[in-house]
User: What shape does this take?
Amino acid sequence: MVQRLRVRYAKRGRLRFTSHRDISRAIERAVRRAGIPVGFSAGFSPHPKISYAGAAPTGVASEAEYLEIGVVSVCEPERLRADLDSSLPPGLDVIEVVEAGAGSLADRLECSVWEVRLPGSEPVGAKAAVERFLAAERVDVERLTKKGLRRFDAREAVVALTAHEGPDGTAGREPSQPCAILRMVVRHVTPAVRPDDVLTGLRLVADFAPPSPPAVTRLAQGPLDARTGGTADPLDLDRDIRGGEPGPAVRHVGDHK
Amino acid sequence: MPVESLFPRLEALLPNVQKPIQYVGGELNSTVKDWDEATVRWALMYPDAYEVGLPNQGVQILYEILNELPETLAERTYAVWPDLEALMREHGLPQFTVDAHRPVRAFDVLGVSFSTELGYTNLLTALDLAGIPLHAVDRGEDDPIVLAGGHAAFNPEPVADFLDAAVLGDGEQIAIAISEVIREWKDEGSPGGRDELLMRLASTGGVYVPKFYDVEYHPDGRIKRVAPNRSGVPWRVQKHTVMDLDEWPYPKKPLVPLAETVHERFSVEIFRGCTRGCRFCQAGMITRPVRERSITTIGDMVEAGVKASGFNEVGLLSLSSADHSEIAEVAKGLADRYEGTNTSLSLPSTRVDAFNIDLANEFSRNGRRSGLTFAPEGGSERMRKVINKMVTEEDLIRTVTTAYGHGWRQVKLYFMCGLPTEMDEDVLGIADLAKKVIKAGREITGSRDIRCTVSIGGFVPKPHTPFQWAAQCDHETVDRRLKQLRDSLRSDKQYGKAIGFRYHDGKPSIVEGLLSRGDRRVGAVIRAVWEDGGRFDGWSEHFSYTRWMSCAERALAGEPVDVDWYTTRERDEVEVLPWDHLDAGLDREWLWQDWQDATTETDVEDCRWTPCYDCGVCPTMGTEIQIGPTGRKLLPLSVV
Assistant: This one.
């Protein structure tokens, strides 16, 4: 391996229905089609050197997914970005590629900023539910995981949670209906607290139940920024080490207040 | 008239179903053509789950060929899982295509590819969800022509009531021809409605329209005759054979799904047809003669397909891939070309001979060395003579020993249970064979770290084979023999631990037998099973033998026939078989003689290397054997 590159990509539109396994297959094939000189593990069953960090769940869109790719000959990051992006199906879009600096990328992904659109939900009700949730010490929720039904606290991991009124951008629905939009910053803990766990919590504390499935998007993930209460760009460190340009502006939860 | 996409309505349901990506479409190399610019619109269905249906070669080939026609459009649809079916019914969402999410009922043709009979109930689900009447006679001018193809279409009688038409054999040219007939008819303003269209198709002699034929029965339930009920319809409908496979190098641009599917590879058919003459093998009988794709076309197709897909595995498909006249050159040429690229090559369906070990070594050069599979099919020498699978015990042990000697650790042996004339000792012979294999393997490797897996399936007699007259073995006998075999393997202290055993119980084979050799009266059984909730019969978690039996009892109550009559009953030479009016080219007298030869353990050679034995296919169909060698070689790929 002569070089490692870190890739930020988005999962948009109907491709939000891909699972993380679907995505890894799609990326491996795109890498092959694009002729990217990916390295392979040695041994009986060689695998391409691509590692994925903190994939968003099936059905959840994301503007901030990350992976790291090891190559056997030096690649210019912007060229690799363009090649990989054009080789991937529309909806899996490569946003940025930087050369990896020191330290683990996965360790920097401390929390996520989520947007949850709730078409058909009254913003007033959502705001009231959010207040009750934030006022609670702990909110125990249950979720069926691969290890069976698990019960855990959904409150502590939530760093910030707000409700707004928003236009209902969901296709195929009446544009006139109300739509509440939640924004939340949630720390990555074990077991993971996901936006739907927070929604379960809202139902438990305030009997708040959206009439239709929520549309969830991960807006950002990265280190917790104590100053803003949002996330910092996890690739900043890689850029700092190389002395390169700063990355694209990351939206912070605080900006919307 | 524009047809709107159903996707927004579907999208609202997707968060609540398993593996939603399978319904989303947008696969690499998929095509969405403008609805209004096309005259003839096909919905192509593989009647099983997306994960099974997407890799199907037949559907991919027709999809590509039809979409290349300027005035034709083709989209794909698959069986939806019960979770989505329930939501679609609740929300009134009709069966949709995955390409542009258009309602299936808006198409001109619903083409269904039946690789197996176990997709029949899924056809009914799709028709019902689409809003298309289940019975062809109830369909109106706005309904598509429901057209079946695939190997099961060589006896479409059990689903005849649900089909408007069926075609036998290779689909490439007949699909284009049908599209042309429909285009002309539509351009003329659709004169005479769907009946005239069906008549135009039937009169070509190559499209079977079931409702233009009447079936008469004897009082005892046997068929008296099947005859056209109007003039201009042929007495027998012929199968289609594509000659010169190099002219049809499809798929050129393989579909690459986002969802996980059963075959994650780029597959090239290296030849069609097989004349080895295995008597149980319907595919080998109905796809004659052998037509090879040349080594250079294979090389070109692999190169283009790998480039267009990014797949890291290439499968060279056929009914017996090692029989290609230049397989050694193909294997070496491809292995050289893809050296160091982590592209693995696989060769399914190989015969039991030592030559194949060299091939396997070549094929595993760039990839994983997982396991080798051989199919002796019959456990005793006598059994193998009955089925004309000419491999001796010596051959088998020598081949497998060579494999172990070359470093293969795992060998899988495939057999069938319930073959005609089979006795308990034929099945128990499998255990002896497996033990000898392990013994020889331990001797040559000096190691106990070798394994062999015995995999065994139930035999189902199929139409257009010498065993079409045979009595199917009842499931009690099959299960008893499988249990004896299992006990014999498990109880062996010396070798038992090195031998794996995989089997299925005999009941599903009885249902498959009913559907394989059934006639039009079986349609009522299929419908009853479907109405009772029967779906996805190829999946053990969905299949219910009890449901099939109780529905069959009810649906056939007024008939002089029952499930046993269709399955475990031997037929005599003069009985009219439900598929006798469908012509696979095989001479009926030859098939009967081959059935007699089976019972006297007389073998038949392969007509590629010995003189013609008059099976009848080539003269009837105007075809010929097309094999190499061409003497050409694969050159290294030019580096871009």
